[in-house]
Structures are given as structure tokens and as C-alpha cells.
Amino acid sequence: MTAAAVLTAVNDPLEYREDVEVDGPKQGEIKVRIAASGVCHSDLSMQNGTMIPNPPMILGHEASAIVEDVGEGVTSVAAGDHIVVSFVADCGDCFFCLHDQAFLCEGANMGLIAGLLPDGTSRAHSQGADLSQMCGCGTFAETAIIAEINAVKIDKDVDLRVAALIGCGVLTGVGAALNTARISPGDTVAVVGCGGVGLNVIQGARIAGASEIVAVDLNDSKLEMTKKFGATRTINGGTEDAIAKIKDMTGDRGADVAFEVIGNQKTIDQTIEMTRRGGQSILVGVPPHDAVLNTPAFLGLVFQAKSIAGSWYGSSNVKRDVPKLLDLYDKGELLLEELISREIKLAEVNDAFAAMKTGEVARSVIVF
Ligand SMILES: [Zn+2]
Ligand SMILES: [Zn+2]
Questions:
Q1: Rounded to the nearest whole angstrom, what is the distance from the C-alpha of residue 86 to the centroid of ligand 2?
Q2: Of 169, 157, 158, 148, which is closest to residue 61 (Cα–Cα)?
Q3: Nearest ligand, CA of residue 196?
Q4: Which of 62, 170, 313, 361 could form a disulfide with 38 if both were Cys (CB 3.0 to 4.6 A apart)?
């Protein structure tokens, strides 16, 4: 028996259950003991139906864990290994993995679509029903079966609390700056939206060598926090005209690279507008399904030779990028502890959801 936090219906609080049975790992699967799991906005989006859950479902997709057992054919990890759980798989042999775009890996699509393991079934059961596992992970649980291709082995001396954060927000944000964008030393970068992922875009831009990093948000306490991560200027978009200010700073040109990290129709348009001719607008935030771009094709884009790029999972190849990020953390360049606003127990996960709804800046982390 294992404890898990289960979504039984959209908008209901998660149910804390101690009666979850977990099968052994099948071919290509591993059994893990979760060490720590971040509580991310996407978990809330599953709970409130913004994303489409498959209840009853164990939520959680950003975690660190210790391998307990491995199924047939597993070669990349063994019992006792420490791992980061990556909700985007890296199978190594689908079209995208072979084209250096593992962030689009198709090896674990059943996880992303239905919260199931790659063979389309689940290994967790409770009260007479199979439980799906968000993204094929379901890390709000003491133990879980995940696919081997969702695990990235890490050194045993890495703090598992901070390692947990890497699997979602850090790869997404830092990756957007280091992988999706081409930031040159000396660039002026704008980051619109300074929540957990936005803070990581900011530190990614700092690591890439941007000399001005302009943080834009509506919340002054979030803006204050951005300075620790590398913002050199802050703009409260509610009381100041962000586009005019950024043009002022840059000889009327605009930012070399501007990131949208909210997923809001209006701020997407503003982000494209604040980008200079020849610059890059990088869209990171997840907008509602009906959001569209409102940019004039000729005068806004062609004549300005602007690039607009969508950034999914920070264009990360996890087997390359997880070790790289941990190395940056070791050198003191990547801040991770600073992203944790509090540590909680699994049974307190609904409190973390409540804190997110009030706009809390950084992460609650469940420590097992
Ligand atoms: Zn997430
Ligand atoms: Zn793949």
C-alpha cells in the first residue's frame, strides 16, 4: 500500500488515500520511491479542468525519486539510483529524439494524453478502480511505476529537494533562454510574467550573458523577487507602459529577445510588439485554446524580420540538460533553493493549491 493524492472529479479537492496498490514494473518500466515533488500550475490546471484530466488520477509530474526495482529490458537505471522524473520522455529512437528534439519525444504520448504508461494501462489501483498517473508520472504518491524513458539518472550527492524542481519549471524556463532563444552577451532581454517559470527564464537570460534583463509583471512582490534571479530593471505593467519603457531604454528599437511567460492573449501581442526589428519573441506561457496571434503580417513581421518561436519544455533534451543544469547549480549560477517557498507533506497538497490560486510566487515542494 502506498499513499497518494487523487483527483476524483474536476474542481474537487484532491483525496488523500493510503490504500493505493502499486503493481510491479513491467517491461521498460521502473518502480520508484518519490523523494520530493514540486506542486506546479499544471497540477492545478488538471484539478480545475483547464487541462483535461482522466480521473481518478494521481496528480504530480515534477519530482525526484530513488529507484526501487526495474522491469525487464531496463538498462539506464538500477535499484538504488537517484533520478529526476521528466514528464516529457526521451526515448532516444523516435523521429524527434533522432533529430535532436527530444522535447517532442513521442515515446510516452499515452502519459501526456491520458496519464497512462506507454502500453496504455496503469499500475496504480485503489477502491476497485485503476488510477491514471498525470503525464504517466503521478508523483503525488509515495511510490510509482513510471516508464524508464521518463527517468534521468543523477548523482547521489544531489539534494533531492532541489532536484525535484528541475523536471518541469526549471527546464522549461531556463531552457527557453538557453535553448529556444539565441541570446548573445550584451543583449537586452524582456521577460513578461514573473511566476515560477518566468524567474527561470530570467536566470537563464543571466547565464546566457544578457546585460539588461527587464522583468515585467503586475505584482510588485514578484518583481522584487526577480532581482535575485538577475533582473536589472523591473516594470509594473499595471501602472507603467512596458513597451514605451523598453523602447526608451533601447534607442527606440525594442528588446533583442522578449519572452511571454503568462499565456495571455494581450501580453503575447505586447511581447511581439516590444521585440526589436530582427529580434526574437519567444512564447513560453500556455494560452487558452482560442488565443490567436494579432500581429500584422507585413509591417509587424516580414518588414521587421522578427522571429516568433513557441518554446515547449524549454526545447530541452533532458539527458543533456538535466546534468548541465545541475552543473550550473553546483557552480552557484543556477538558483534552486530560492525557488522553494515552502516544504509540505503529501496530505497538505490542497493547501499548496490554495496558495497558488492566491498568486504565490514560487513553489511548494512535497517532501516524502
Ligand atoms: Zn509542471
Ligand atoms: Zn523519443
A1: 13
A2: 169
A3: 1
A4: 62
